[in-house]
């Protein structure tokens, strides 16, 4: 059996960095059933409305959508069930402290296979206000315009 190497992207929460300011990221394992893994290998998953919670010392991924495996039988999984995330005890305690003291949230940024194992990139994040989002978009547009101008100068055009 040949073990695959590297990182294969399954799903990404593209809107997360727009709506949240990411303070810290964690790579977590995820507890899955057989049909969920097969469905993920087909590249089907969605993290659009997903979030993570800490309940009784365990971290859970909620509302992530992994569609039913098309070849599955009665043993198929429920698409939006809660899934346990695997972190070290010290990391969980640190997360609990940060979440409670400063009102931060746990947001999944992406889901991928790393060396054949399903992983979730979890972010400790603070929600952005509307004016923060406008400021970030204006900064991004200004940077893009500056890069265009630098490119024109290098090519000899103005």
From TrEMBL:
Q: A single Pfam family, by name?
A: SmpB
What residue spans carry the region label Disordered?
A: 130-158
Major localization listed first in the record, in broad terms: cytoplasm
Q: Where in the cell is it found?
A: Cytoplasm
- Identify the domain of life: Bacteria
Residue ranges, compositional bias (Basic and acidic residues): 133-148
The record's listing under SUPFAM superfamilies reads:
Small protein B (SmpB)
For this UniProt record, the keywords arranged alphabetically read as follows:
Cytoplasm, RNA-binding
Q: Write out the biased-composition intervals (Basic residues).
A: 149-158
UniProt record similarity statement: Belongs to the SmpB family.
Q: What does this protein do?
A: Required for rescue of stalled ribosomes mediated by trans-translation. Binds to transfer-messenger RNA (tmRNA), required for stable association of tmRNA with ribosomes. tmRNA and SmpB together mimic tRNA shape, replacing the anticodon stem-loop with SmpB. tmRNA is encoded by the ssrA gene; the 2 termini fold to resemble tRNA(Ala) and it encodes a 'tag peptide', a short internal open reading frame. During trans-translation Ala-aminoacylated tmRNA acts like a tRNA, entering the A-site of stalled ribosomes, displacing the stalled mRNA.
This one is known as: SsrA-binding protein
Q: Which organism is it from?
A: Saccharopolyspora gregorii
């Amino acid at each position: 059996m040949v073990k695959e190497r590297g990182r294969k992207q399954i799903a990404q929460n593209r809107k997360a960095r727009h709506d949240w300011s990411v303070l810290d990221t964690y790579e977590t394992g995820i507890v899955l059933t057989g049909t969920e893994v097969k469905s993920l290998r087909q590249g089907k998953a969605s993290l659009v409305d997903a979030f993570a919670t800490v309940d009784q010392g365990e971290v859970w991924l909620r509302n992530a959508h992994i569609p039913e495996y098309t070849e599955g039988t009665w043993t198929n999984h429920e698409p939006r069930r809660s899934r346990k995330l695997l972190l070290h005890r010290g990391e969980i305690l640190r997360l609990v402290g940060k979440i409670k003291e400063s009102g931060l949230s746990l947001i999944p940024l992406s889901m991928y296979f790393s060396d054949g194992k399903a992983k979730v990139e979890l972010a400790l994040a603070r929600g952005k206000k509307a004016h923060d989002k406008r400021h970030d978009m204006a900064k991004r547009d200004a940077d893009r315009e500056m890069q265009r101008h630098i490119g024109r100068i290098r090519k000899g055009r103005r």
